[in-house]
Amino acid sequence: MALSMYQLTVPAFVRGLKVMSALLKKAEAHVEQHGSVPDAMISARLADDMLPLTGQVQRASDTSKMTVERLTGVPAPKFEDNETSFDQLQQRIANTIAFLESVTPEQFADSEERTIRLNFGGFPDFTGASYLLTFALPNFYFHVATAHDILRNQGVKIGKLDYLGAFA
């Protein structure tokens, strides 16, 4: 049996977002244990020209929900990118997962051949399958990995198994 576009999107995005949620819980525990300032952790970044931790969560959320919208035509919720706390980031992840889980496999019918046009970056038109495999999934995992790396850089005791979500 071939993999469906639904199987390649919703479960993968939900799993990645749950991993991100678990990473944020470990970061919050680290902040509490060390008496650190939460704002310093959630505004941390790897380089000056990269988004902070909040931006990584926001982009992973946006990438997952907008990918599903582009592939299915089901309107994704709009979020303001105004999270300033661990609780708000967790709520954004939960809201994103709720949207993803509301979309059915049937709504992905023929999505692999749908034309996807991005209105930024000068990208060529994609088929749904090429968009998912060469743009959306790599972009999503870039932001999950970068969030992981920011937290590691800030001293949070996480490793590869935390990123892989082996026990999530």
Structure explained in plain terms:
The chain has six helices and two strands. It is mainly α and 168 residues long. The chain has a two-stranded antiparallel ribbon with strand order 1-2. The two termini are 26 Å apart. The relative contact order is 0.21. This is DUF1993 family protein. Pfam families: DUF1993. InterPro entries: DinB/YfiT-like, DUF1993.
β-strand amount: under 5%
Unreliable stretches covering 5 or more consecutive residues: none
- The general outline is elongated
Structural class: mainly alpha
Largest sheet entry: 2 strands, antiparallel
Please tell me how large the radius of gyration is. 16 Å
**What is the percent of helical residues?**
55-70%
Summarize model confidence as the mean pLDDT. Answer: 95
Q: Can you count the beta strands?
A: 2
- Give the neighbour order of strands across the main sheet: 1-2
Instruction: Give the N-terminus to C-terminus distance in angstroms.
Output: 26 Å
Give me the number of helical elements: 6
InterPro entries: DinB/YfiT-like, DUF1993
Protein name: DUF1993 family protein
Pfam family, one: DUF1993
Organism: Duganella margarita
